[in-house]
Design a protein that fits this description.
Length: 434
């Protein structure tokens, strides 16, 4: 049991660290491409400088993501050999395609960084767009593999072995579209508000800076659009989860009893023994509507499933509430930004709005980490939902607490290095635009 906890903790740390850099790699190149496009169209040197500054940030995050992603691939084989034994032939295709997308992204990024004054302007811009497209494809392919773990398809399970394998059906399983869309929007939302919040903080220090003002507008525009579209994506994902993983949906809402016209629960503390939620706010009929599009639809409760198949309720329910709360706050801020941009653009420079944007800097990644927690912890105790339990996929190698400590130290070191490089980069940009 101790080794299982160490292995799961190691994967939690690794995925939680890597997903930040993966998300930035999906979204940041498009911010860069927008500023580059504006420079080519207007000739304003502010956009050229902004493109160069952001491209160096992309390079830093790309290099760190490459290291953390490589470590993750080793961890899968080290910690979960039985999973890899059965899953490898089934979902090897999206992982191989992810590797191809990653190498194309590396090539495109190298061409972009060294293509200034060497490539024709619009070809150079196209290469920058290619960095973003390949980054999104890389993320989508990985999500396809994760979606398969939540919604297994493309094989038959006979006598503890996978037979009749169809890699295409496995990759394009019933959950891949909704999960990929939700993850991509989350990446743009988190990155947009993080970058916008950073430039808002710098604008509070230097209100007259055209460089930070334009960066702030571009980043918040992207983040705001993603934040307002994300609830629609979340609704689609929730409806799919209600069908494919009803126990996960019940854990997300701490929904203990099967009922029609089920209430949506906001907040609260789940009491597994008493099968109730303390201190919660209930919105009648809304859970039935969100899960099935019908206010009177029946929603299965946790009581329908063996207790041994319940995910950790406190973690899943709490993470879901954090995700929804942080996402709602960003959607409200995004709506305010779009309204002010349309009706009262001068108020975007108001100190109160800039302070609100600066305070929201981490919220997107808080929501992202919470959502990933819901996805992964909500699937427990299964590593392949309904097929293989996590404990059965664990390596027999003892002493897994030691790799956990070693890998955690590596990620801590990487976090320190990245923070130092970013601070150094920000100071250099500030000196240029002082």
């Amino acid at each position: 049991m101790e080794d299982l906890l160490a292995a799961r903790s190691q994967m939690a740390v690794s995925l939680g660290f890597h997903i930040v850099f993966a998300s930035i790699g999906m979204a940041m190149p498009f911010l860069m491409a927008i500023s580059h496009f504006r420079w080519l169209r207007t000739g304003n040197p502010v956009y050229r400088d902004l493109t160069k500054a952001w491209s160096r940030g992309v390079a830093i995050f790309f290099a760190t993501g490459a290291v953390s992603g490589t470590a993750l691939s080793f961890e899968l084989g080290l910690l979960w050999p039985r999973f890899m034994e059965h899953a490898g032939p089934i979902i090897g295709m999206p992982f191989s395609w992810e590797g191809t997308a990653f190498f194309l992204e590396a090539i495109a990024l190298g061409l972009f960084l060294y293509g200034w004054n060497r490539l024709s302007p619009w070809i150079h811009w196209s290469v920058g767009v290619a960095v973003g497209v390949t980054g999104i494809l890389s993320g989508v392919f990985v999500v396809c593999a994760n979606a398969w773990m939540n919604s297994p398809a493309g094989f038959a399970w006979v006598g503890g072995q996978a037979v009749d394998i169809d890699p295409f059906r496995a990759m394009f399983n019933p959950a891949w579209k909704s999960q990929a869309l939700h993850m991509t929007l989350a990446a743009f939302e988190a990155t947009g508000f993080a970058v916008g919040g950073l430039h808002a903080l710098l604008l509070l220090r230097r209100p007259s800076s055209a460089f930070h003002r334009e960066a702030f507008k571009i980043a918040l525009l992207i983040g705001s659009i993603a934040a307002l579209v994300q609830p629609l994506s979340g609704d689609r994902l929730a409806k799919g989860t209600a069908v494919r993983q009803p126990v996960k949906l019940a854990a997300m809402e701490a929904h203990f009893h099967t009922e029609r016209g089920a209430s949506l629960i906001l907040g609260g503390v789940p009491d597994a023994e008493g099968k109730r939620v303390r201190y919660a706010i209930r919105l009648p009929y809304l859970l039935s509507f969100l899960a099935h599009g019908d206010f009177q639809a029946e929603v299965k409760g946790l009581e329908e499933f063996p207790v041994g198949d319940w995910p950790p309720l406190m973690i899943v329910h709490g993470a879901f509430q954090v995700m929804v709360g942080a996402g709602s706050a960003l959607a409200a801020l995004g709506l305010a930004f779009l309204f002010l941009s349309w009706k009262r653009p001068a108020l975007l420079a108001d100190k109160r709005f800039l302070l609100a944007a600066a305070l929201a800097t981490p919220l997107g990644f808080v929501a992202l980490e919470a959502g990933w927690t819901v996805t992964e912890v909500g699937r427990q105790p299964w590593i392949i939902y309904g097929i293989m339990r996590t404990r059965d996929a664990l390596t027999p190698m003892p002493g897994l607490v030691y790799p956990f400590l070693i890998f955690s130290a590596v990620y801590l070191f990487l976090a320190v290095v990245v923070s130092w490089l970013l601070l150094r980069h920000i100071r250099a940009v500030e000196e240029i635009h002082a």
